Amino acid sequence: MGISLPGFLKCCGRTASKDLASHEGSKDENTERGNWSSKTEYLLSMVGYAVGLGNVWRFPYLTFQNGGGAFLIPYAVMLALAGLPLFFLECSLGQFASLGPVSVWKILPAFEGVGVTMVLISTLVTIYYNVIIAYSLYYLFASFTSVLPWSDCSKWEGLNDTICSKTPKGFCNVSFGGDIVTANLTWVKESNQTCLANSTFELDVELPSKLYWEREALRRSSGMDETGTVVWHLALCLLLAWLIVGAAMFKGIKSSGKVVYFTAIFPYVVLLILLIRGVTLEGALEGIQYYIGQQSDISKLTNADVWKDAATQIFFSLSVAWGGLVALSSYNKFNNNCYSDAIFVCITNCLTSVFAGFAIFSILGHMAFKAGKPVSKVVDSGFALAFIAYPEALSQLPVAPLWSILFFFMLLTLGLDSQFASIETITTTIHDAFPTLMKKMRIPVTIGVCLMLFLLGLVCVTQAGIFWVDLIDHFCAGWGILIAALLELVGVCWIYGGNRFIEDIEMMIGKKHWLFWAWWRLCWFFISPCLLLAILIWSLVTFKAPMHGSIVYPAWGTAVGWCMIGFCLIWIPILAVIKMIRAEGSVWQRFRSICQPAATWGPALEQHYGQRYEHLLDLDPKKSRKGLEIPTISGYDNTAYIS
To answer: CB count, 10 Å around CB of 30?
Structure first.
């Protein structure tokens, strides 16, 4: 059946008009890559990524340990000098180019390995982070009972190697009836007696919550040398954790952006409930005073360790240099105000940390009151706080299972938010490398990534699993990130050019007065790099071999840790050398070519090129002079119809 040329052109004209109308009517500015469905989804995802487990189980302890309320001074200073400048830089970088953490280094090809390092470290951390989510799931399921299984010592009676007790056990001398007698500490407390000075002998006892954590939940072996078997209840919880992550990420930001409406907001509801319940308990005031009240010690600000802890906490709390901020921001529309977003997310993150401390310490204060101990004796951080100290405190409350369910569900949602962003970092990197593949097979690729990471994580749910979790955290979540952040600042601000980068930002958020940029220039060029370098050197000088409690890692375990971080960092020089070899010209010409932006560096869409990047028009033959993308008609030269 034949068709005339005018009829064919008319038909094609309708098709092209329909495609163009569909393109222009789409909510996504970047139809090829996609954008956030709303600004709210982006902000909630960023808050969820920045606000993680560390806000609940590390910051309150650091505050208590470093002078209480006085610690907020160096914390705020380090936020302004190190945290916020890096956060703003990464958000701007990803949004400007609409590229992930590896491809965004078109800005400086010699530093592409920095992006690879970020993604590899995020991948390793993602493996063990989901194991922590699996721990939370296990405790959540264990809380659905009338009596919490770690609430008493009935399960641990008759142990030969330890004594289970919720109160101190031992003996001391007391004055009773005119005589000095030796009595056990339980009787002394019940009789309201007082031990004579220097006469107390305490037995080593373990809380039931600690025994439950080590012997029931972890089935922990004696050390890293003893791998043991896979702990199947944890393996199943790990599988469930990856199923949740995969289900939330199957459409990328389009699906995870909906999930964060719950996972990012729910932790605040739980923290508020726990705080309200906590402040009504006996001993709560003493706990809060230890956290941020009368126990504050301003003199500790003269201690360099306090400032180092503040800088380290703010740096890792905001998740800078992990690649996630660049990945999430790359889905923004070009003219989104990334400056106000950075301010909002950073302040929200810090206020959340302070707020969480009140909820944690009010209930720990009640626990100390009931145990007859000072608050300092019951406070801990990390796993010991989340799975030993706080569960022990919750077990002493009326309707204990309810509070336990709320707490571990909160840990679950806190962890999932950060995990969503980490997986998005990986899939965004794959998308940038293979856009056609991801457009057609996003769901299979996402499932494949989750399955691979689940299998790699199985070593972390063996009986020696907790040692692997600590090992990855000790090596990968430290120096590698500091080195990547330092090179990121050097590359963008010193080599690409801080002033040139500021002009890029102004293309997105509008022209600003030079005074506006004075602070950012000062931080990007000098203060932030110097702080990061100081923290990095300090960390290396004060390096100690990893330990889990009092258990020392074997030499081969420490060697594995160095190999992991070495594998992540080695790509920085390797890719720089590869770029150098592939470049043309003399050695100096090659070096110069890889230390300047690639020819394709710039905004993703033509309407944002402006005069500064109008040369990109010559690189894309499918662009019209009017800035419209012409639908391709198979078998015909579409440019012939453009005039």
So the answer is: 18
CB atoms within 10 A of CB 478: 19
- Phi, psi (rounded to 5 degrees) for 156: -110, 15
pLDDT digits (tens, 9 = 90+) for 147-192: 999 998 888 877 777 788 887 788 888 887 778 888 888 788 777 8
Residue with tokens 């939940």: 217
Q: Average pLDDT of 69-90?
A: 91
Would you say 411 and 84 are in contact if contact means Cβ atoms under 8 Å apart? Answer: no
User: Rg of the chain over CA atoms, in angstroms?
Assistant: 28
Secondary structure (DSSP) of 216-240: IIS---SSTT----B-HHHHHHHHH
Do 143 and 404 meet the contact criterion of CB atoms below 8 Å apart? yes
Is residue 564 within 8 Å of residue 125, measured between CB atoms? no
Q: Residue 608 corresponds to which tokens in the numbers above?
A: 């944002």
Model confidence, pTM: 0.87
Distance CA 28, CA 633 (A): 23
Task: Specify the 3-state DSSP secondary structure of 174.
Answer: strand
Q: Please give the structure tokens belonging to residue 587.
A: 């050695």
- Is residue 500 within a helix (H) or strand (E), and if so which, with residue range? helix 498-509
Q: Tell me what the mean pLDDT of segment 111-123 comes to.
A: 96
Q: Which residue in this structure is represented by tokens 């989340």?
A: 386
pLDDT band at 105 (very low <50, low <70, confident <90, very high): very high
Q: Is the dihedral angle over the CA atoms 193, 198, 204, 208 positive or is it negative?
A: positive
Query: Is the CB of residue 119 less than 8 Å from the CB of residue 99?
Result: no
Helices (H) and strands (E) in the chain, counts: 28, 7
521, 498 in Cβ contact below 8 A? yes
Structure tokens at 15: 């098709």
Q: How far apart (Å, rounded) are the C-alpha atoms in residues 325 and 529? A: 19
Burial of 170 (0-12, 13-18, 19+ CB in 10 A): middle
When mean pLDDT is compared across 28-32, 238-242, 553-557, the lowest value belongs to 28-32
The strand ranges marked E within 505-595 are 547-548, 551-552
Which amino acid is present at 632?
T
The CA-atom distances, in angstroms, between 283 and each of 366, 385, 400, 640 are 4, 18, 18, 81
Give me 637's structure tokens.
Answer: 């030269």
* Beta strand 205-206 pairing with 163-164: parallel
- Kindly report which listed range (92-101, 295-304, 573-582) carries the lowest average pLDDT score: 295-304
Query: If we measure between CA atoms, which residue out of 639, 636, 642, 643 comes closest to residue 5?
Result: 636
Q: Name the phi and psi angles at 623, rounded to 5.
A: -95, 135
